[in-house]
Amino acid sequence: MRSVVAFFVGILFALGLGVSGMTRPDIVRGFLDVTGEWDWRLMGVMIGAIGVHMIAFRLITKRASPILDLKFQLPTKKDLDYRLIVGAMIFGIGWGWAGICPGPAIVSLASGNVVFVLFIISMLIGMKTFQLFDSKLKTK
């Protein structure tokens, strides 16, 4: 049952990304260009997503447990470390430069556009590279 629900939620999310313009790098770059010709269209998407999350999170976490799991899977780590800060910086630079976020890139694979295929391959290579460097740092 969880897989069926996850599949349909994923489809709904993908449709939302497509309809909102999040799968279009030109719109994303325009939104991030606050000093140039700023494209405000994604502001509604951001405000809507934050609003829905705020309300839903409060309602859902009042329950004793989630509907499709035994317990809530909430993050417990509260501190900021170099991995989080550097990772966020790299993510932000990549998002701004390419105008592509990982979720919308996966959705955009359906378009057949080679740019999104190259983005996903590059992202996977970057993730693997991080894993290799991170494991070497932990062993020292």
One letter per element, helices H and strands E, the order comes to HHHHHH
Number of helices: 6
The largest sheet is: none
Question: What best-fitting shape do the alpha-carbon axes yield?
Answer: globular
Would you identify the regions where 5 or more consecutive residues have pLDDT less than 50? none
Determine the fraction of residues in helical runs and give it as a percent range.
55-70%
Structural class: mainly alpha
Compute the average pLDDT: 90
* Count of distinct strands: 0
Radius of gyration: 18 Å
Q: Which strand-content bin applies to the residues?
A: under 5%
Distance N terminus to C terminus? 44 Å
Set out the fold topology.
Layout lengths: L1 H19 L4 H8 L8 H20 L21 H17 L3 H7 L5 H26 L1
